[in-house]
Amino acid sequence: MPPTPVDSNQAGRGIFVVSLPGDGDRWRERIESEFRSRRLLVMLPSEASIVVVLIGRKFEQGWRPTRRLQLIVPLIPQEQIRHAIAEGKQVIPVLVDGARIPDSRDLPADIQQLVYQPALTIETEADFHKVIAHIISTERTAAGGRGRGEAASRQERSVFISYRRDDSRYW
Hints:
This protein has 171 residues and is an alpha/beta fold.
């Protein structure tokens, strides 16, 4: 089933999920289904505020060339990840099926930054629900921070200092 577009009042918001074909398919289907039911799943990384990179056991090996022709299939996820990183989108690696973050030397140069992002791990059903809640919370925070203008961002960086009058000898 194709992703459901986000509501028009949520333009520029949403979550895109990317993985290598055949890598963590069971979890990808569940994750996409969960985001689709909440109308947060988008069809393109350019439409998303967050890109979830699903990393299963095949992820690391999927980038290595074979003796046959260079695989074309990994180029699509690589381009999607590269595009998300280049646009400054929040990229969240999610480890499934006992996978670990690959060594940056095992990945193409244009997506090596992925290994330095804090990763979430799904090993159990309870982990699944925590990861989904965390990603949705992060998406809401990211979406809420856009479009408020420079004054709002300056205000968030302000510091309020207060002191009692009888402590004024230090001032």
